[in-house]
Each structure stands twice: as C-alpha cells, then as structure tokens.
Amino acid sequence: MSEIKVIIMDVDGTLFNSEKMITVKTKEALLKAQSAGVRLVLASGRPTTGLFRLGKELEMDQHHGLFVAYNGSKVIDYETMETLFNEPLSLAEGKAVLEHLKKFNVYPMIDKDNYMYVNNVYADPIQWKGRSINIIEYESRGGGYLLCEKKDLSEFLDYKVNKILTAGDPSYLQEHYKDMMEPFKETLSCMFTADFYFEYTAKGIDKAKALDTVLKPMGFVQEQMIGFGDGMNDISMIQYTGIGVAMGNAVQELKNAAQYVTTSNDEDGIAEALYKYMPVLRAE
Description:
Distance between the termini: 23 Å
Strand content: 15-25%
Radius of gyration: 18 Å
Low-confidence stretches: none
Largest sheet: 8 strands, mixed
Mean pLDDT: 95
Shape: globular
Strand order of the largest sheet: 5-4-3-2-1-14-15-16
C-alpha cells in the first residue's frame, strides 16, 4: 500500500460531530499528520468563506491546505489564497435556474463576496426530523455571510455563481426534485447534498473532478489519498481516492461505495481510520 500523503474530508457529518465541532482526538490526529508532511483537504458543499475558521483551527494556513468548496466548483490554497480551480455556472444558466425555482416552495440562496442573497430573510423554518430549523440563518452563519434580501433573484443576478443552493422540507424536496431538475438534467449537475438541500452546479462538477484537476499536477496519485465522507455528494470522492472511508453515520449508498466504514462523526471516526491506515500517527 502506498504511503498516504493527502487526507481529504467532507465537513458536515464527517469532520464535524453533531455539535458542529471537531473532536479532540480527530484534531490531534490531523495535526500530527500535517506535521509529518501530509496535505489536508476540506472538500465540502460549503462556500470558501464557510471553511476559513476550520482551516485556521487545523493550521491549514501554515501547510498549504486546500479548500474544495461549492461541491467541487472552486479550489483554493488556504495559505496563499490562490484560486487553483474555478468553474461556475454561466450567467444564463444561473438566471434560468433561479427563474425555474419560482415554481416551487423552496428557498434559493446565492452568494457573492460577504453576502448571501435570498428572497426573504424572515422565511418560515423548515421541518427536519421533528425540529423547526431557521435554514436561512443556519446557512448564512455557517458561511459567514451577511444577509441581503432580493425580491427577484433571477433579475438581480448579474454575475457567475459557483452554485445555487435550495433548501426545503425534506418531504417536499423528495416529491419535487425531479421537476426541479428536469430542464437542467442534461446541462448541469443537480444533486442532494442533504435531505433538506438540493443544489445546482456546472455540468460535470463534483469533488472528484476538482481533486483530479488540482492534485495530479502537484504530483499526488490516487493511491496516496484517503477520503472521508457521509453523504451522496461524497460518493465520487470516495471512489476517486485510493482509500475511500465512509463514516458510521453515512448514507448506505456511500457505505456501499467505500473500502472501509469507520465509526461515526461523534465517535472520532476520522481518527479511528487514520490510526488504522497510518499507524505512525500513534507514535508519541
């Protein structure tokens, strides 16, 4: 087996536990790996701004850690802030999606710089697992955004977006997602990133494409990569990396695609697998 030189991790449900924190044991393992020269990569549906705090906590700004953001449509080097890959939706595609979404009872969200734009900052909460969640607040705080309200997002849009995120009650999205993606199923990538999130990115965009585009020119090969995920949008990444690891809390489809199923995100799942595949980290 090749020596592991790159650790790639989804964030929500993977690196984060249920309290939206990195466990002490997982953080310790990642810092040890990084000190040994291993490159860390955060690969998330989150925007780049939603990864800065985590990168700082893991000292990725000192070791050329990479952010694969927007589900793979943008990659930056956190130490230099250089954009290594960027493939947004075209302006026409973005406007068409936002126009189409007016037909559905969902909350579209787009971002630019420090702002997230929505139709209604006081939108009703969504219902998820018996809980009411203020999804606009949740997403804006997670991405570090100020909120701005626009009555017509399609008319407002005059720039290329990396993704268009929609949120809604899981039961509603499950019932309507095929209609939501119908006009774009051949021209865009449309997918669930959580049961209450459905999003649109440029055609062919996923985490695996971003990783392949950026890491290969750096001299890394797939056999030197280990990847961790929990959701449907992590499947391409799990299949791409030399060692694909599903969290214990992952969806079954991801577990089926993985080479190894570790413990859950609340049970130090990343650390458990790293100690299995990188025993040198156990050395004091």
